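hey so i finally got around to running the thing on that chain from the lab meeting. sorry it took forever, my laptop kept dying and i had to restart like 3 times. anyway pasting the input first so we r on the same page abt which one it is
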Amino acid sequence: MRFFRGGWFLAAIALSTTISSLATGKEAEWVTYEGKEGAGKGKQIVLVSGDEEYRSEEALPQLAKILATRHGFTCTVLFAIGKDGTIDPNRRDNIPGLEALDSADLLIIATRFRDLPDEQMKHVVDYIDSGKPIIGLRTATHGFDIKGGRTYSKYSWNSTQKGWEGGFGRQVLGETWISHHGQHGKQSTRGLVAKGEASHPILKGIKDGDIWGPTDVYGVRLPLPGDSRPLILGQVLTGMESTDPAVDGKQNDPMMPVAWVKTFTGAKGKAARIFTTTMGAGQDLENAGVRRLLVNASYWAVGLEDKITPDADVALVGEYHPRPFRFGGFQTGIRPTDLTSK
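ok and heres what got predicted. didnt touch it at all, straight out
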């Protein structure tokens, strides 16, 4: 297996994985990590990457390997694919393999301003309407940018359609793109448990300060809509180290939620469990608290909250050296098949 770093992949430990293809004889444009032993055995998770800045194409394969290897979930990771068959986050209109959502138990999405064709977007919308759970990471709040007049334009981040203001982000996840609340690239984020939420299953094994990430706090409108329930508040720090002090003043008064739960009821009338965090960039996953938050959320989303333990294994699988978040910073020339052991 090879991993992202400095222009080339490094050799790492072997991981038993399989590549699945929905088109016989075609090189797979996604990767599937078969679940090992664990409480998630038999559950199918589809993780959809596709952002230009925060390295979701690196974060989601690592998260998938943790969920598959350490917790038993079978995880399929999808990517923005360029015309040459390589992973290209700048390609906004092509994420092959979304039909995997038709049989998924959980969607984890980390897209940004995607403008997908109807035949791909239909699988996303059918899943949203199914009442099955969704986890949104970082830029998923502004995951789609579909121009007005198109079939699925109401899912766009800036939708003004009645009942769908703010699109997928606002209506399904709880917020769309608003602002950088912390200074981007200058002020990092420390997670604090929201008052009264310490006993929530997603927060098992997580205390104040366990969660930290170099990405900044996103702005949201308070209160969050509907039955949204903040779990983690983002304390803006003065710098880019986890030990930096908090900023004084209005940036932290009030603090913005950076993780919350809610429900969404789609066309089929079933209320879906939703977990959203504005953290989750590639570098954020180097933090064990962030990984625990996402693993716990995955259990909760599929109704396995009774299986969450405070000491669950959330260690990285293999070497993981995510590239810094920035536009144009992705590793070129990588195919999904490069992300599996042979």
